[in-house]
Amino acid sequence: MSFPPPAALVEKPEYYDGLDLLGLRNPVQRIGNDCLNGIVTVTPAVRYLSIYCWLLRCYWQQGRPAKQSAFRRFSADAEFALVLANRLVDPRIGNLIGADKARGLLAEGGTEFVPTKLANTGMPGVYSAVAGQLGLAADAPVGGVAALTRERGAALAELAGAHLEATGLGRRIAEHGVGESVARDELVEFGQAARLDVLAEDERRLLAEIVLPSEPRSKAEERRLASYGLLLHLADRRGKPPSQSGFFNAVASDDVFPDALTRTRTEWGVYLTRDSIAVLHEALLSVTVNVTRARGGTAKAAEVIEAIVGSTRQEEALRGLELTAGSDGIGSMGCAALMAAVVGATKPTRTEFGRVVWPGSLQEPKLIAGARGASEGVGLLTLVGWMLAVRRNEPALAAEPSRGVQAAGAGAGRLGLREVIAPHVDRWVRDDVPVVAAIAELVQRTVDQHLRIVWSRRNNDPHRDAGKLAVDGSSWRFRGSFGGGRSLNPLPQAVGWLRSLGLVSADGLTDEGEAVYQRIIATGVNA
Questions:
Q1: Does 27 sit behind a cis peptide bond, omega within 30 degrees of 0 on the bond before it?
Q2: How many CB atoms lie under 10 A from the CB of residue 109?
Q3: Using the 8-state DSSP alphabet, how is residue 167 labeled?
Q4: pLDDT in tens, 1-42
Q5: Are 51 and 59 in contact (CB under 8 A)?
Q6: Cβ contact 407:27 at 8 Å
Q7: What are the residue ranges spanned by the domains of the chain?
Q8: Model confidence pLDDT, tens digit, residues 480-497
Q9: Collapsing DSSP states into helix, strand and coil, what is residue 288?
Q10: What are the Cα distances from residue 485, in Å, to 264, 281, 501?
Q11: H-helix or E-strand containing 476?
């Protein structure tokens, strides 16, 4: 029996850019990986785990050398056959590693295909770490090849092999490897058994137990299980799989979650705070770069800052947050009044594990959405973002340094909350620094942060220079455009895996998903 493919495996990502030119995404991604390990952002096709384990078993059974380079070559040939086979069986199957190159080869209409590398990073590079996190394979020595674990990896490889080796090409791969060439008709037959969007029932059940174990073996597995529990909770409550925006709106809100999920909700809240800081500063850098470019490519830093601070967009951004500057406008508003407005818009509060939640619309997702236009008003949004970060973490800041406040290593060099953000907000409010002066400080700090990261990377690699601004005395010089973006996170892929594993559907939780969800809640994991 085969489990049917979901209608859509993954939410389409939006507003992402691969360049971390302020170094602020690194703490965000570290928190995300800590909350939800055992998954990759490359593809939501969970069956790749089965294929990877099967290839490891084939490789070792053939007595091949324990060299990573040799396994990569062996795997690359098998991946070539896998991707072409999937494209031949159903061109609509997406999220294949190396699909673009495979599409071109098939379009040539040949009947025999010589294996070639389809992607720079193949299956071993993508899935070796994930296989270790899921307990499928033991850590390999440097330059070596991982060995499958008996209970999980070997068991999954055996189930996958029973289906794949029922085909001629599958048997050949298991016995000798792909060989010098592979015929189109062999690929078609192999593709019926190797579809990445369909899971046989036995494979599906074992994968579900591996990804969401009934008896987690480590704290990392407990955290992963709790994060999936959060997704299942939202699917149950809303009657549909949660979107990424829906997930973070719920995390930011004052909604009450089951006790077993509260700590995980707090950890994702720390993620969201750091994510908002990164997004806002990247948008502010983008505006600064654009203003410098508009002034002929080189301009006095003070003039660029004044153009941003003096823009009417700051007032518009304040109104967009449903905050007011008073009759005299933002030009005469002090940070004490702005902080008071922020506090007034974030009541009543409730504290969970040192993090404060509240009802209403003034939440991090609103700031992130406002930053997407990257207008001059993002200066005001960034200032409010700093104040909101302090408001979120008032209890934790008043206590001893904690993991949440430290935000996974976001120290002074990454605008840490305790080291940088809270002291500056305290000074601005205490001294009632004009809002426009605080925004000016944030523009300068954003540029300094960018240059510090660029210079640091150039020290490690002189040929690696992604600077968008350069400093010429008291002037800034335009060097390249920058649109800003947002850190990738594994949530869309996690929802895709839940679909593939038969735990959620378009209508929310399936019966099996409900059973898994209740198990997580009853266990009290990570509470």
A1: no
A2: 7
A3: S
A4: 343 433 333 333 333 345 789 999 999 999 999 999 999 877
A5: no
A6: yes
A7: 47-198, 299-478
A8: 999 888 888 889 999 999
A9: helix
A10: 25, 10, 31
A11: strand 475-478
In angstroms, rounded to a whole number, what is the distance separating the alpha carbons of residues 456 and 26? Answer: 15
Residue 459 makes CB contacts below 8 A (sequence gap 6+) with none
C-alpha distances out from residue 454 to 20, 307, 468, 478, Å:
10, 25, 9, 14
Nearest alpha carbon to residue 425 among 48, 295, 417 = 417
- Any idea how long the chain is? 527
Q: How confident is the model at residue 44 (pLDDT cuts 50, 70, 90)?
A: low
Q: Whose CA is closest to 285, among 372, 374, 384?
A: 374
Q: Which structure tokens are listed for 10?
A: 């993954």
Extract long-range pairs of 325-332: CB within 8 Å, 24+ residues apart: 325/435, 330/380, 330/435, 330/436, 331/434, 331/436, 332/434
Residue pLDDT, tens place only, 141-172 = 778 899 999 999 999 999 999 999 999 999 99
Residue 159: how many other CB atoms lie within 10 Å: 22
CB 30 within 8 A of CB 24: no
- DSSP of 308-360, one letter per residue? HHT-THHHHHHHHTT----TT-GGG-BHHHHHHHHHHTS-S-EEETTEEE--S
Cα–Cα distance for residue pair 490/37, rounded to 1 Å: 9
